[in-house]
Design brief:
Shape: elongated
Low-confidence stretches: none
Helix content: over 70%
Order of helices and strands: HHHH
Keywords: Membrane, Transmembrane, Transmembrane helix
Largest sheet: none
Strand content: under 5%
Number of helices: 4
Number of domains: 1
Number of strands: 0
InterPro entries: EMC6-arch
Distance between the termini: 44 Å
Length: 102
């Protein structure tokens, strides 16, 4: 099966998963650099705004690549996977005491 762009279902899944993972890791690094890794910084809602920006920034990229027709399940998958990788990467950076300079 392929959609109008000629991407097979498997390739579409690989592309979406890869972009979600990379966006989540990038959001974690940007959160650590922009907001910080202290206890006070980790309690800020700005880190969640950074995550939301990275989730929303993926959709234009998907259109450029040719992956479209997202349903509710696909949107939840993108948000969940991006959140998961953001949470893991930001937690590792915050608990290890890394200081990133923006």
């Amino acid at each position: 099966m392929s959609d109008e762009s000629g991407i097979s279902g498997h390739a579409r899944g690989v592309v979406v998963t890869t972009i979600c993972c990379l966006a989540g890791i990038a959001a974690g690094v940007v959160s650590a650099a922009y907001v910080g890794t202290t206890v006070e910084a980790a309690q800020s809602t700005t880190v969640v705004l950074v995550l939301g920006a990275f989730v929303l920034a993926q959709y234009p990229l998907y259109k450029i690549i040719g992956v479209s027709d997202f349903g509710v399940k696909d949107n939840l998958y993108v948000a969940f996977l991006t959140f998961t990788l953001w949470f893991i990467s930001y937690t590792v950076l915050a608990t290890s005491g890394v200081q990133l300079v923006a």
